[in-house]
Design a protein that fits this description.
single chain; 229 residues; two-stranded antiparallel sheet; 6 strands; globular
């Protein structure tokens, strides 16, 4: 199994379970016989880039991007050099409206992950050009378990739930010790129904600071934060 740092102990009961072994057998067959995204070596990037010890926020996505070269194991993120999809463009618009940061040239959100934002999709893999094609393989059990473990073992985490799929995970979260921020999905089909104007970036930082935690540097642009704001 790939080394996931301090997540190894947290996730060990999941990786050792029969449910996960079924997922693994399914993935071996899929990767051997079909084009699957992300690359198998990127499958757990959200854990690699965001150590459990430094996790301060969780952003939930649904399904990895299913076109070539996009998905790399972080929800909503695309590799550098790939044109940001419409939902990500809308995220950057809200970030600019909320905190004044200029839209970045790249859609790679690795910096957010390294800032302590777990960029978790509810399914971690997908067959090429077939949205939600791996949603029934057991990923929901796995990622629901991850959310529950974070809720149980951490304090004062901000959960960003954008859209119906993400909002359905709220019952897994102890709202007495965590902040849950909900709104519409940033997709062009729903962004004007409450995503635009949600101010979740600034609200996240206000909550973290109020609980003695460092704020997240959301700035992805080439401009220094002092000039971008």
């Amino acid at each position: 199994m790939v080394d996931l740092g301090d997540w190894n102990d947290i996730l060990a009961p999941l990786f050792q379970s029969e449910q996960y072994k079924k997922i693994r057998r399914f993935l071996i067959d899929e990767y051997n016989n079909h084009t699957v995204y992300p690359d198998m070596y990127d499958l757990y990037n959200c854990f690699k880039y965001t150590p459990f010890s430094s996790l301060r926020a969780v952003l939930l996505g649904q399904d990895p991007y299913h076109n070539e070269g996009q998905a790399h194991g972080l929800c909503f993120s695309v590799k550098a050099g790939v044109e940001p999809p419409p939902s990500l463009v809308n995220i950057f618009k809200e970030l600019h409206a909320d905190l004044g940061y200029a839209p970045p040239k790249s859609g790679d959100l690795t910096k957010w992950a390294k800032e302590g934002v777990l960029l978790l999709n509810t399914s971690l893999s997908v067959r090429a050009h077939m949205a939600n094609s791996h949603s029934g393989c057991g990923w929901s059990w796995f990622t629901d378990s991850v959310i529950s473990l974070i809720s149980k073992k951490k304090d004062h985490v901000v959960f960003l739930l954008w859209g119906g799929n993400a909002r359905s995970k709220k019952p897994l979260i102890d709202t007495k010790k965590h902040l849950v921020l909900e709104c519409a999905h940033p997709s062009p089909l729903s962004a004007y129904n409450g995503f635009f104007g949600c101010r979740h970036f600034s609200k996240t930082n206000e909550y973290l600071v109020a609980h003695g935690l460092p704020p997240i540097d959301w700035n992805l642009s080439d401009e220094p934060a002092s000039q971008a704001v």
